[in-house]
């Protein structure tokens, strides 16, 4: 039996949207490993694998369970050292930790605002109730009030991409000449938006948009197979 990836969807089974699950999709594809995708809702996650994890992604590799996209990438790297590397050594692992911090602390706060209502609207009634209660507790205000701040925050988000733009002047990927797990960390955040809403993250001609398009074409276009939201 091959690897099983448990990933998050709403009512549309063909639109997996979790940024963390997309990191794992790209990691598995990078390694050239076949896998099956088990798509579940928020409320289904605690039932998975006898309650193994409160969050997805989770992979089952025969009798081995691994949760968390970074831990999964490390597991795949160590389990399959003969396949294309996700890190290219300890320096790559350390770099990916920095990129993960940048993505979660700088990029995700704005993207959360962008996708908030799109996620809510994609869920069925029980999952909408769970999502609204849990997110309004985090934000301390109604979802609609949080989402209304989107356009006011966009300029600061655009500025926050400047380190990536500068890097892309000298190389096509965060990983250098080819992608590494560090690329998939940032890619997952932008794919989160792409599959949920037509909101334009990038200004025309932004090199980060060009990089994102290159990532969509990787590994036979596995990420582009999910059509962009309209």
Short structural description:
This protein is an alpha+beta fold. The chain has 2 domains: 3-79, Glutaredoxin, CATH 3.40.30.10; 90-221, Glutathione S-transferase Yfyf (Class Pi), Chain A, domain 2 (Up-down Bundle), CATH 1.20.1050. It contains 10 helices and 4 strands, in the order E-H-E-E-E-H-H-H-H-H-H-H-H-H.
Your description of this structure?
It is a single chain. With 230 residues, the chain is an alpha+beta fold. The protein has 2 domains: 3-79, Glutaredoxin (3-Layer(aba) Sandwich); 90-221, Glutathione S-transferase Yfyf (Class Pi), Chain A, domain 2, CATH 1.20.1050. It is 54% helix and 9% strand. It is built from 10 helices and 4 strands; from the N terminus they run E-H-E-E-E-H-H-H-H-H-H-H-H-H. The chain has helices at 19-31, 69-79, 90-122, 125-139, 143-147, 150-160, 162-168, 181-196, 207-216, 218-221, and strands at 3-8, 35-40, 58-61, 64-67. Strands 2-1-3-4 form a 4-stranded mixed sheet, covered by helices on one side. Strand 3 (58-61) and strand 4 form a beta hairpin. The longest helix has 33 residues, at 90-122.
């Amino acid at each position: 039996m091959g690897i099983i990836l448990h990933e998050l969807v709403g009512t549309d089974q063909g639109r997996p949207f979790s940024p963390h699950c997309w990191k794992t999709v790209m990691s598995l594809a990078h390694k050239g490993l076949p896998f099956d995708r088990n798509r579940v809702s928020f409320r289904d996650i605690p039932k998975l694998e006898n309650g193994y994890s409160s969050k997805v992604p989770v992979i089952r590799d025969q009798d081995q369970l691994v949760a968390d996209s970074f831990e999964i990438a490390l597991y795949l790297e160590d389990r399959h050292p003969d396949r294309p590397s996700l890190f290219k050594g300890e320096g790559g692992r350390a770099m990916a930790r920095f990129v993960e911090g940048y993505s979660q602390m700088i990029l995700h706060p704005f993207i959360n605002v962008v996708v908030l209502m799109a996620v809510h609207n994609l869920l069925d009634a029980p999952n909408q109730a769970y999502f609204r209660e849990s997110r309004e507790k985090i934000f301390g205000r109604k979802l609609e009030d949080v989402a209304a701040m989107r356009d006011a925050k966009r300029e600061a988000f655009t500025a926050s991409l400047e380190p990536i733009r500068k890097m892309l002047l000298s190389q096509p990927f965060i990983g250098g000449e080819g992608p590494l797990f560090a690329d998939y960390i940032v890619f997952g955040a932008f794919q989160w938006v792409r599959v949920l809403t037509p909101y334009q993250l990038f200004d025309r001609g932004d090199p980060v948009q060009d990089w994102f398009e290159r990532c969509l074409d990787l590994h036979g276009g596995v990420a582009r197979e999910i059509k962009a939201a309209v």
